[in-house]
């Protein structure tokens, strides 16, 4: 633990830190899935909690339109609600910003945050502003609700499940990463009409996120790379590794395939739904290194 | 809005931004009180939400012990729960940190966060880490619960109410700002045994916070400066303007004075409780400039 974060990496750091954190009897799912899932006193439904941040020069540049920054900051958190088929309801905004920043920039930022929140009837109920000598940091914390029988984790996938993705993959950096709409309506429709076994949103690229879902479900996977729904002018490599797609990845029994594809086309005629592969039994090697990225994408046995 | 934030100031900025933000039918109290108060589907109690941040070189220095930084970051948010007599239950941590920072520093930070959370059985249920080129920013978002009839706002003060503060005031910068314990137990005891009309925590100094409570209650106030419970080696001026006391300020009918003082001494023998003044009718000038700080501390008519 005397190494710099750069060398250790975020995943390893959190793997060291999170198991030691306090839990209580109301925690259903703590750190590790898209949202935290907890019980709220006297309520049947579960409370979902999520925090997410965007940082200047990491998630946006000084030149990025402030309204687009706000939209992105809010939609990233809402996308994690889609991943669990949750309904986001309340947001808090924390802003660390240099005193020399234009008030009009902050005004536009809030306009973008509020526009994205309004899209899903989320109320911005408070926040905090602090000065910083460094880059702007915007943190969006969201609370919401999900019915117990419609909360979809990453860990529920079953062997032989089909893997589906919504939309198209790759090339998000050309602008889509600032303009996307969280797939909340689609996720809610899915869980109203089908038994979805596992789900997450694609934020770090298929090559990272498919293994995450498979690992959480204690399964292996295979992907048909030729089936991937490529964004215009994108290569298969980009569709796998680009990240920031904010599409849904989910696992569902192959018995539902025909009905799902038919009803989906009717309900969301403009949004592709693509079967990209399947979950399967994991190899006997229990602690194998999980594959990441293009080269190792078809899981080795 | 083309001015820099430095000139406009945070309060004015938020006053411009907040009224335009989306609300929905589940919002009881939005931005402006210590926590947001919202309804949760199917529950009788209210859901409380709060976010707060500490920034390197603003709220702590590079030399501050990381565990103390974590303790402070968590306790600041918990203090806002005390202010509403709420029970904090779940916390999310968002951390923006330079890649060159030592992993051991972050480990110690989490240890401090977790120790403060454990003090009140709060579960840390997730978080997010991002790189930044600038100072460390730590955001703590907390969700919790309060019974409808025990949720105390700033706005409920009545004319002639006594104003009380817990503990001692001033000189927090000598170390107490890193070590304080949120007054949650005291606030819960108060609302279990008394009808408290208005309450808040003292974070910006009595000279700023008393006028805030009075203004929210649409009342004036008078303070007996000789009565203020001064921390050791502090002047009256410091007790009024230092800030970061994280003590409770509350308004309660003078009919309760004798019983309150007697029961308090029995329940919390080591913690002073001091009547510092009272609320009274506001002058006829409706939009008068509210007094701040020492010189104008006794409200002018």
List its salient traits.
homodimer, 301 residues, alpha+beta, 60s Ribosomal Protein L30, Chain: A, Phosphoribosyl-aminoimidazole Synthetase, Chain A, domain 2, six-stranded mixed beta sheet, five-stranded antiparallel beta sheet, 9 helices, 11 strands, 30% helix, disordered C terminus
Tally the helices of chain A.
9
Which bin fits the share of residues in helices of chain A?
25-40%
Distance between the termini of chain A: 33 Å
Roughly what is the average pLDDT of chain A, rounded to an integer? 90
In the CATH scheme, what's the topology name of the largest domain in chain A? Phosphoribosyl-aminoimidazole Synthetase, Chain A, domain 2
- Shape verdict of chain A: globular
Low-confidence stretches of chain A: 284-301
Strands ordered across the widest β-sheet of chain A: 1-2-3-6-4-5
Largest sheet of chain A: 6 strands, mixed
Reading the helices and strands of chain A in chain order gives HHEEEHEHEEEHHEHEHEHE
In the residues of chain A, how many domains can be counted? 2
- The secondary-structure class of chain A comes to alpha+beta
Largest interface: A-B, 84 and 84 residues
The CATH class of the largest domain in chain A is identified as: Alpha Beta
CATH superfamily of the largest domain in chain A: PurM-like C-terminal domain
Spatial extent as radius of gyration of chain A:
19 Å
Beta-strand level of the residues of chain A, as a percent range?
A: 15-25%
């Amino acid at each position: 633990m005397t190494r710099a974060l750069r060398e250790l990496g975020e995943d390893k750091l959190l793997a060291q830190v999170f198991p030691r954190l306090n839990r209580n009897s109301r925690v259903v799912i703590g750190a590790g899935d898209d949202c935290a899932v907890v019980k709220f006193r006297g309520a049947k439904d579960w409370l979902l909690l999520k925090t997410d941040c965007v940082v200047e020069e990491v998630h946006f540049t000084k030149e990025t339109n402030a309204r687009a920054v706000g939209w992105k900051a809010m939609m990233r958190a809402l996308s994690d609600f889609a991943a669990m088929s949750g309904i986001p309801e309340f947001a808090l905004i924390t802003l660390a910003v240099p005193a020399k920043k234009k008030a009009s920039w902050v005004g536009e930022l809030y306009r973008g945050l509020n526009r994205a929140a309004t899209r899903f009837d989320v109320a911005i109920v408070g926040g905090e502003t602090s000065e910083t000598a460094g880059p702007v940091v915007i943190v969006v914390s969201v609370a919401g609700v999900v019915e117990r029988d419609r909360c979809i984790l990453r860990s529920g996938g079953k062997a032989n499940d089909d893997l589906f993705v919504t939309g198209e993959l790759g090339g998000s950096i050309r602008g889509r990463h600032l303009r996307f709409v969280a797939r909340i309506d689609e996720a809610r429709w899915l869980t109203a009409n089908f038994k979805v076994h596992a789900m997450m949103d694609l934020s770090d690229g298929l090559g990272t996120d498919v293994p995450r879902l498979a690992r959480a479900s204690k399964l292996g996977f295979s992907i048909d790379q030729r089936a991937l729904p490529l964004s215009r002018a994108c290569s298969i490599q980009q569709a796998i590794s680009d990240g920031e797609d904010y599409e849904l990845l989910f696992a569902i029994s192959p018995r539902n395939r025909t009905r799902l594809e038919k009803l989906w086309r009717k309900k969301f005629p403009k949004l592709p739904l693509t079967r990209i592969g399947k979950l399967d039994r994991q190899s006997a090697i229990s602690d194998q290194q999980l594959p990441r990225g293009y080269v190792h994408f078809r899981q080795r046995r």
